[in-house]
Specification:
By secondary structure, the chain is α/β, with parallel strands linked by helices. The protein is built from ten helices and seven strands. α3 (34-43) runs antiparallel to α4. Bound molecules: S-adenosylmethionine.
Length: 246
């Protein structure tokens, strides 16, 4: 008769002691991050989208992503607003596999691709929904939400209501991370607009705001706000804002 695997034969006290001697999970840094995580994502995409992903990750570089990564909880439900092809859901899911990311984007083709990429990377808890974030049938609470280069694509009159909606979807102490483009120096925002126009054309409104203005809007909604500007070799005036629900 087989005695079973050694671990199941250990007396429970011994098992508890072994478990206690492991360092708390909070002391583990991600093992899959930066280039390795990005390569996995690129390999999960068809050729055209792979080129797009490589361009996106050369703008949103690993160091900027690490700033966002540290602001997001390492587990729980996280909302990704305007997830596109799910590049960043795939990135933040690889760095912390206990995250369950729900991505929303009105573009059904991108959502389909996001599902495929998550599936190939084994991120089976991620979910994706083709919907407009302003009225998507999504149920909270979420431990966190992030909006990565999306707020300036939202019509100006809808920006505050969307932030308010996101606040209401968060659990108490939940964090909303907004990555966007600030408006100074002026030549950098002009450069960013040219790059954005190349993607979306000249019809869609693009409403960039100064980071102080985003801060004031988020404060008016009761968030506690912190922000950092992130330097880059390319002339993008990146800003990352962490807004914590009180
Ligand atoms: C510049 S792309 C950013 C995509 C992704 N977050 C990234 O950083 O690669 C902007 C995305 O916002 C999405 N978007 C625009 N309006 C939206 C809305 N009302 N609700 C949700 N997503 C929206 C677009 O479909 C697009 O995928």
């Amino acid at each position: 008769m087989s005695a079973g695997p050694a671990s199941s034969r250990r007396p429970s006290l011994l098992r508890a002691l072994v478990r206690k001697s492991e360092p708390p999970r909070a002391f583990y840094a991600p093992e899959v991050f930066g280039r390795a995580a990005i390569t996995n994502i690129a390999q999960a995409l068809p050729p055209l989208e792979r080129v797009y992903a490589n361009i996106r990750f050369s703008i949103l570089r690993p160091k900027l992503l690490s700033v966002m990564d540290l602001l997001l909880p390492d587990e729980g439900r996280i909302l990704d607003i305007g997830c596109g092809f799910g590049l960043f859901a795939a990135y933040f899911g690889q760095t912390q596999p206990r995250r369950r990311i729900v991505g929303i984007d009105p573009n059904a083709r991108r959502i389909e691709m996001a599902r495929k990429v998550a599936g190939k990377l084994g991120l089976t808890e991620h979910e994706f929904m083709a919907a407009d974030a302003r009225d998507a049938a999504v149920r909270g609470p979420f431990d966190a939400a992030y909006v990565l280069d999306v707020m300036h694509h939202i019509p100006p009159e809808d920006q505050l209501p969307l932030l308010e909606r996101l606040r209401d979807l968060l659990s108490p102490r939940g964090v909303l991370v907004v990555k966007d483009i600030t408006t100074e120096p002026a030549y950098q925002v002009r450069f960013t607009e040219l790059m954005d126009r190349a993607m979306v054309g000249w019809e869609e409104p693009l409403t960039y705001r100064h980071h102080r203005e985003w801060g004031e809007m988020l404060s008016s909604l009761g968030f506690k706000v912190r922000m950092v500007r992130v330097p880059d070799v390319l002339p993008y005036p990146h800003v990352v804002i962490a807004a914590t629900r009180r």
